[in-house]
Amino acid sequence: MSSVLLSVHNLVKNYGTRRAVDGVSFRVLAGQTVGLLGPNGAGKSTTVGMLCGLITPDAGDIFLGGERVGPGAVAVKRKIGVVPQELALYDDLSALENLRLFGALYGLRGKVLAERIDTVLGQVNLSDRARDKPATFSGGMKRRLNIAAALMHDPQLLILDEPTVGVDPQSRNAIFDTLEALQAQGKSLIYTSHYMEEVERLADHIVIVDHGKVLADESPASLHGRLAAQAALRVELAEPAHASLLDGLRSQRGVTSLSAEGGAIDIGLAQATDALPVMGWLQQAGCRPLHFATARTSLEDIFLSLTGRSLRD
Amino acid sequence: MTAFLALIRKDLILFLSDRRALAISLALPIVIAAFFGSLFGGGSKGSAIEVALVQQDSSEAGARIAAGLKSDPNLRITPMTMAAAEAAVRKGEQKVAIVLPAGFGEAAGAALFGNREKPAIPLLYDPSQPAVLAMVKGMLTQQVMSVVSAEMFGGKMGQELTERSLRQLEEKANTDPDSKALRDMLASVQKYQALPQKADAQGGQGAKGLSMPFTTQDRQLVNGKAEQGYNAYAHAFAGMGVQFILFMGVDMGIGILLMQRSGVWNRLLAAPVGLVQVLLARAASGAIIAFALLCTVFAVAVFGFGVHIASLAGFVGMALCFGVLTASLGLVIAAFGKTPEAARRIAMFVVLVMVMLGGAWMPSFLFPEWMQKLTVAVPTRWAIDGLDAITWRGMDALAALPAMGAQLGFALLFTLLAVWKFRRI
Q1: Of A103, B36, B206, B362, whose CB count within 10 A is highest?
Q2: Are residues B14 and B63 in the same domain?
Q3: In chain B, how many domains are there?
Q4: Is the pLDDT of residue B226 over 50?
Q5: Are residues B180 and B266 in the same domain?
Q6: Do B3 and A52 touch (CB under 8 A)?
C-alpha cells in the first residue's frame, strides 16, 4: 500500500463574509494522481493556493511528508512544484533563461542546473526552442514550458491548476503525454480542472468540490457506482414517441430513467448490457429507430446528481 | 543567495533586453535637462540683456549716453527706429526698448540744477520681463547721471546752461535768500568749468561726471573651483535625472503588479524564498538600475555639458542612496496599487508632485520661504539638493551626508510600509 504524501485536514478560508473553502479534507498517496474537480468559483484555486503555501488558511492543516505546509514553511516548498493556471513565465526571457531562473529559485546552480534544464526541456519536447522567447511560442508550447518550470527542482508533488485552459486539442494531448510520463515515473499529481474528460483520463482518485465543500472523495469507479444509471442509450425515432410507448419502456428491466423530446428518447440503464433487450423491445413494439447510440455515464452526470447543476455553470 | 542573485539577474536582463525603453530612459532626461539647462543660462555666468535703443537725441550728451549703454557688458544694444523697436518688443524679440527723445541731454542738464521739468525717457518693455525692466532702469540711470553731470561740470552745454541760470538768478538774488545761495553755488561751478580740463589720471580721458559713490565686489559663495558658480545644466541634469529615474521606479512597481496579474508572482512565492527576499531582490535590482541610469545621465552632463562634479565619492554616495530611494518607492507603489493601470496613474501624479516640490523643475531656492521649509518633507528635495551640493555648489561628500541620510530614511520607511502591506495581502 502506498504511503500518504499529502494530507489536508479541514481547511477553511474566508474572504470577508464569504467562505471560499469550508472544511476541505483529502489525501494524496505517493504516486497517485488526484483530480480536484469543481466548477468555477468552487474553491479549487484557493485550496491550491493553500497547498502551495501562498495563502494562509483560517483553519485546518496541511502536511506534506510529515512537514507542515504554510507561507512561512520554506523548506517544504522544495518538495512541491506548482503549475499556475496563468502562463507564469517571463515573455521577454528565453525559455532557457526562464528555466534557469526558476531552477535557481530552488537552489540549483552550475552543472546541476544545466542538466535539469536539458532534462525538463526534453520532457516537454521543447529542446529545440530553448533559446527562443515564450512570446514567439504557440499557446500549447507556452503551457508546456509552464509545466517545465515547475519540474526544474524535480518535486515530489506536482500541483497543476487548470493547465490546459485555452489549449487546442493537439497541444492538450501533448500535455497529457507529458503528465502520463510523469505518472509513470511515480510522481504524485494534483490536477484541478472543470473538464471531466481530462480528470477521467488522468486521475486515479477524484475529489469533487462545490461551494468550498468536498462533495465526493473517491475513486472514479466508486463515483460511477453512485449513479443508478451506469450507461445511457439514446434512440432517435422518425416520429415523436407516444405516451403508451414511453410507459412500456419505463417498465423494461434495467431502465432507470427516461426522457423524451420530439423523436429523441434518452434512456438511463443500470448496466450497458441492458441496451440490447431494450432495443429488441422497441423493435417488437413496431418502432423503427433512425439512429441509436450508447454511452457510459460521465463525471458530468455524477456532478449533476451531486449538486443539481452542471460543472460549467 | 543563489535565488536572490538569480532574481536580481533576471530583472537586469529584462531591463537591458528592452532596448527601446532603455534608450528612452536615458535620452529623455538628457534631452530635457539640456533644454532646461540652456533655458536657465546653461553653464555660462549669465547673458547680456537684449535692449533696443531708439536714438532721437542728436546732442553730444545723447550720443555719449548711447555709447555708455553700448559699452555696458550687461546689455546688448541694438539701435532701432521707434516703429521697429515697438514691433520687436511686442514680438518678444527685444525685452526692453529705451527711447532717448530729442533734446533729452539739454533738458536733463537743465533739470539737474534748475527747476525745469524733468525730461522723460520712454521705456517700452515686454510685460513678461518686469525684472529685466528694473535692471535696465538701474543701468540707464547710471549712464544718464554720469553723462549729464559730466556735461554740466565740464561740457559746453553745461557752461551755457550755467551762464543762463546765473543770469536768471541774479535778478532774484537780492530778494530771495535761496536764489542767492544757488547763485553762489553756480558761480563756483562756473569757476570750476573755467579751469583747464585735466586728463584723467587713470584713463586719460576728459572730465567725468557723477558716478555711483561705491562699487560692489561680487563673490559667488561656492566651494571648489572659484570660476564654477551656478550651473543651470548641473541643476537641470539633477532634476530631470531624478524625475525620469523615479518614473523607472514607478515602472518597477507596476512590474510587480503585472507579475501578480500574470501569475509569475505566485510562482516566485511558491518557491522556497520568502516574501521579504523577493521584495528585497526586486529593490536591489531597481536600485542598481537607478544608480546606473543616474551615473550615465551625469556622465553625459560632465562630458557633454561641462558640469563639474566636485566630489566623486559624494556623487557615488548620492547616486546609491537615490537608487535605494527609487527602488523603495517602486515597492510602495506595488504594495498599495490595486491594478497596474490605476497604480500607474496615481504614481505618475505623485512623482510629478514630488519632483515639482523637490525643485527638479525650478531650483528650490526660488521657492517662497514657507515652501522651502515645507518641502524638506519631500524626499526628492533631498535628492536634488544633494546632487546640487556635490556639483555646482562644489561641496564634498561630507556636506552631502544629510541628503544621503534623509534619502535612506525615506527608503527605509517606504520599504517597511511595503513589506507590511504585502504581508496583509
Answers
A1: A103
A2: no
A3: 2
A4: no
A5: no
A6: no
